[in-house]
Amino acid sequence: MNSLSLKSLNKLAQAEQSVPNYRMGDKQPKIGIVHIGPGAFFRGHQAWYTHQAMKLAGGNWGISCVSMRSAGVAEALNPQNGLFTLAVLDAEPSYEVVGSIQEVIVATQQYQRVMDRLSHEDTQFVTMTITEKGYCLDSEGLLAREHVDIQQDLTTQANAISAVGLLSQALMLRFDKGLAPLTILSCDNLTDNGKKLRQAIISFSTIKYPQMVQWLSTQLICPCSMVDSITPATDDSLKSQVKQALNVTDNWPIKREAFIQWVIEDCLPSKRPAWELAGATFTKDVRGFEHAKLRLLNCPHSTLAYLGVLLDVETVFDGMQIPKVVELLENLVKEEVIPSFTAPAEMDVVAYKNDIFDRFRNPAIRHLVAQIAWDGSQKLPMRILPIIEKNIVENRSIKNLTMAVVAWFMFVRKRYQQQVELVDPLADKLLTVASQCNNQAQHDITLLMTISEVFSAELSQQPVFIKNLQNNYQQLLPLLTGDKTAWA
Ligand code: CS2
C-alpha cells in the first residue's frame, strides 16, 4: 500500500479523492505563513481554511509549522511532504487530503531554520495554537515576567523557549532587515487573544529589544479571532478508517466534526489568504462571537468534562446521555450564562446554544472528557470565572457555575486519590492542595482559594462565591467515594 506523499496524489486524484490541486505536479506555493503549535486543532481548522483558500484562489500561502519542543508531528508529516488526511465525521464520514502544510520544524532542534522562516520576506503571517498556558500570562492577562520560560528568554542569549520570546526575537530580525513586522494571529480560546498577545510581545520587547518598540507599537498587527470546531485526538481506529477509505497509509490523520467557524478581526493587510472563500468571517467586533463561544460552548464543555470524569463517563456524547447532567447544563446556560453577555446582533443565542448541545450529542465524535479536562487551571479563568464575577456584580445566580469550579476541584482530588497523572501546568500545587483536604467543606474550600494563580484576591473573598462553593462541595463529595445515586 502507498504512503501518503506528493507522489501518491495523482493516484488519489484518479480514484476521485479530494486532493490539493495547488500541489499537483511541480506546483508548490511559496511559504507565506508560519504556524506555531501544529496540534490536531490547527490541522483540522486553520490548515484546512488555508487549504481551501489556496484550492479556490491560489496564492503563496504554504505553511511552515513550528513545534516548540516535541518532534512527533515533524516525524509523522515531513516524510509525507506535510500532507495529511482530514476525516470530517458527520452522518457519513468524508475524507480530504489537506496540502497547506509544507514542512514541520522543531524549534529545539533547528532553531536557526525557524528564525530564517520567520524573518523571510515571503513570510507574512504567523498563526498560533499554543493553548492558554503557552502565552505565559498572569491572572490579569499580562505577560508573567517571573514565569521561568520568560525569565530565561529575557535574561539569556540562549534560543528562546517561549513563543513570546521566539516571536520577539524574529521581529527583531525583521526590524534589522528593514522588513515589515508579521501579522500574528492567535487562534487559542483566550478572551481578547490578539490584544493579549500583542501586549505580551511589546512588554517582552520593551525589556529585551527596546530599539524596536516604537516600530512594533505602530505596525504590529495581532487580530483577535474566535475559532471553533470540535477536534478530538487521533486514535488508531481513525488511521485504519483512513487506510480503508483512501487506500494509503497516513502517519497522522485528523478528525473533526463538520461544523467549523473562524471569526477574524477585520484589520488584516489586503494581501492575505482568501480565507473568506472557505467561510471565515471578517468583522470589526470579534468580542461578541468570542464571548458567545467561550461561554456557550467551552464553559459547558469543561463543566461536562469534570462531572464526566467524576461519573466515570468516557466521552462528551456519553455525558449528554445523563439527564441530570444535561439538566444542570441547561440551567447553567439559561440562568447564568446567557444573561451575562451581549451577543452579536445577528446571533440567535438560543438557537446557537441548541446547535452546540446537538454537536455535543454527535455520536460520530468520540471526544474524551479526560482530554477536555486538561489544563483546568488555565481554562477556568477564561471560560468560567469571568461569568461568575459578572454575575456577582449583577446579582445573578452562580450556583451552577460554582458547581463547575467544584467539579474541577473534585476531579483534581480524584486524580490525586487514584494516583493518575494530572495534566496541568499547576499540577504540583494542585496535588499538594488535594493532599491536605479533609472533606470538610469550609476547610477544603479555604485551601482551594489559596490557588492565587486561578482565583484573584477579590474573587476568593466574595462571601457569595465561597458560600456557593461550599454548598456544591457537599453535593459533590459522594462522587469521590463512587456514590453516584444523586446523578442516576
Ligand atoms: C475544548 C475545546 O478541550 C477543550 O477545552 O473545550 O478544545 C473545544 O472542543 C473547542 O474549543 C471547540 O472549538
Count of strand segments: 13
Q: How far is the first residue's CA from the last residue's CA?
A: 49 Å
What's the CATH H-level superfamily name of the largest domain? NAD(P)-binding Rossmann-like Domain
How would you sum up the global shape?
Answer: globular
**CATH architectural type of the largest domain:** 3-Layer(aba) Sandwich
- Helix-strand makeup class: alpha/beta
What's the number of structural domains? 2
Query: What is the radius of gyration?
Result: 23 Å
Largest β-sheet summary: 5 strands, parallel
Give the averaged pLDDT, no decimals: 97
What portion of the residues fall into strands of 2 or more residues? 5-15%
Regions with pLDDT < 50 over 5+ consecutive residues?
Answer: none
What is the third-level CATH name, the topology of the largest domain?
Rossmann fold
- Number of continuous helical runs: 22
Task: Give the ligands present.
Answer: D-mannonic acid
Q: Give the strand line-up of the largest sheet.
A: 6-3-2-7-8
Question: Helix content range of the residues, please?
Answer: 40-55%
Outline the fold blueprint.
Layout: E1 2-3, H1 9-14, E2 31-36, H2 40-44, H3 46-57, E3 62-67, H4 72-77, E4 84-88, E5 94-98, E6 101-106, H5 111-118, E7 125-128, H6 148-155, H7 163-177, E8 183-186, H8 193-208, H9 213-219, E9 225-228, H10 236-246, E10 248-249, E11 254-256, E12 261-265, E13 281-283, H11 287-310, H12 316-319, H13 323-337, H14 349-360, H15 369-372, H16 376-383, H17 385-393, H18 399-418, H19 427-435, H20 441-448, H21 457-460, H22 463-480
Parallel strand pairs: 1-10, 2-3, 2-7, 3-6, 4-11, 7-8, 12-13
Antiparallel strand pairs: 4-5, 9-12
This protein binds D-mannonic acid.
D-mannonic acid (CS2) binds next to α11 and α15.
